[in-house]
Model the fold of this input.
Amino acid sequence: MSEKKTIGIAVLGMGNVGAEVVRIIEENAADLRARVGAPVELRGVAVRDLSRPRKIAQELITDDPAGLVARDDVDIVVELMGGIDPARELIRTALESGKSVVTANKALLAEYTGELATAAAQAKVDLYFEAAVAGAIPVVRPLMQSLAGDTVERVAGIVNGTTNFILSAMAETGAAYDETLAEAGRLGYAEADPTADVEGYDAAAKAAILASIAFHTRVTAADVYREGITHVTPDDLAAARKFDCTVKLLSICERVRGDDGSQRVSARVYPALIPLSHPLATVNGAFNAVVVEAENAGRLMFYGQGAGGAPTASAVLGDMVMAARNKVHGGRGPLESTYASLPIASIDEVPTRYYVSMRVADKPGVLSQVANEFSKRSVSIAAVRQEGAGDDARLIVVTHRAPDRAQSECVAALEDMDSVTTVSSVLRLEGTDD
Ligand SMILES: NC(=O)c1ccc[n+]([C@@H]2O[C@H](COP(=O)([O-])OP(=O)(O)OC[C@H]3O[C@@H](n4cnc5c(N)ncnc54)[C@H](O)[C@@H]3O)[C@@H](O)[C@H]2O)c1
Ligand SMILES: N[C@@H](CCO)C(=O)O
Ligand code: NA
Done:
């Protein structure tokens, strides 16, 4: 059998992930060649700083990513620079000139998948992005391909390692958020600017990508309701424990069905209590996990390393092999599927459960006043606990499911009550059936 044409690879960005991708391409050349059915060769690696020493032949290094993308002997562009610009333009140009693209860039995809997927479809090339959500964990491909014949109802996951590390450490040691964030930085989990992680932007970008695939609807980062973890306190974690729960930053993508048979998509990110018996409660440290619920498959769980150079590179390489096989043997990966075009549900209308902790005056009648604010808004209370006494009296209320707007209106009313000194904590409760 005659050997097929060599598949040329351009890697854009040689940071944590890019350096590992380059290493694996070079170390595994023989296996990759056998798996693809043709040699796979690095044509070049675009970097920002040419003077930095790198473990790669000098002639492969360039600081001209556009020039590298334009080369005739490049068949697949692997984008690992991150950020919107110039990644967006480079990927679009690559696709328009008939090159397949593999990217891990969730921030870009959460805004511009539509534009990029359209360019890929028009040029009949592939756009793959398994590494963009939950790093090494296969979740994009299972949703897009393995579950293509099922109806997904819900995708809920821990998809940010930094915040999961922080919340796990807070739960374990009782340490404060700031202290734990500093520790996450020292261990190399949190970046110098942790905003994207701790404010939930990274998890929201991933939720947008997951919701788009799961519900065949274009969902962008702006459609995702988002709260971060900066306000979570050791008290919250201790109180959660008393309700047999822990606190996790969840990315939730849900098909919300109305009484009239209508359907909407809810995509949301917030720290929430989940029962210790829930499978996501056992996901600790920097690990990620995603639970998918589909009409016929039932509940599926995907667990593993959602970040880090080598694990993320594993997902990138998987995509690269798929794209290379298609180049060699013909065929295409799945196209973007947005046929359902479901409307986006506002957080206000999504049924949620609340956990509200407040400091109150310790005197007769306060509990009934508090309960009255919930009942006025048709929010049913599931549990109440009083802690402390006198000046230190604290009430914790856990509600049943009701539209989020009604729940938040109850909290606003509590904040206005004379007998409530402060509402010290408000978190949602997820992972329960009622
Ligand atoms: N690190 C992870 O665990 C992880 C996991 C999943 C996805 N990702 C995604 O993978 C991508 C890369 O992440 P990373 O952690 O390797 O980031 P990084 O900051 O370590 O690496 C990015 C590299 O790209 C280079 N770069 C940036 N702009 C460039 C330009 N214009 N020209 C040439 N080089 C340029 C930078 O100099 C840097 O070396 C990002 O989109 C990130 O969101 C990372
Ligand atoms: N900053 C991300 C990296 C993976 O996207 C995390 O902490 O999970
Ligand atoms: Na993944």
